[in-house]
Amino acid sequence: MTDLFRLVSDLRRPALLVRAARAGLMDYNRRRDLKRVMRTAEVPQPEAAVSALLQEEERLEDIRRKGDATYSFARHIDVLIAMIAEARLLPRPV
């Protein structure tokens, strides 16, 4: 769990993406938004959610860096919002 928190906190992304994600945190509703972002019927535990969201975010970041036309700025922000919100639910490292 601590490793997941560290992975999220160590991410380095463009300031615009980070600012947009932080702004979206105010309206984040775990029950509603996490199912939509993760495309699942059930709300997973925070550890499972962060792990899956880290993988999806890494995939999106790779697409963004390549300049691929399939990149979705909105999807990337949604994933970052969920990832940050879920990471806040993880136990803090000592």
Describe what is shown at a glance.
With 94 residues, the protein is mainly alpha-helical. It has five helices and no strands.
For the sheet with most strands, the description reads: none
- Please give the count of helices: 5
Shape: globular
> If you average the pLDDT, what whole number results?
88
Structural description of this entry:
This protein has 94 residues and is mostly helical. It is built from 5 helices and no strands. Helix 4 packs antiparallel against helix 5. The longest helix is centred in the middle third of the chain and has 21 residues. The N and C termini lie close together (12 Å).
Q: What are its keywords?
A:
94 residues; 5 helices; 67% helix; globular
Can you lay out the helices and strands and say which pair or pack?
Elements: H1 2-9, H2 15-24, H3 30-38, H4 46-66, H5 73-87
Helix pairs in contact: 1-4, 2-5, 3-5, 4-5
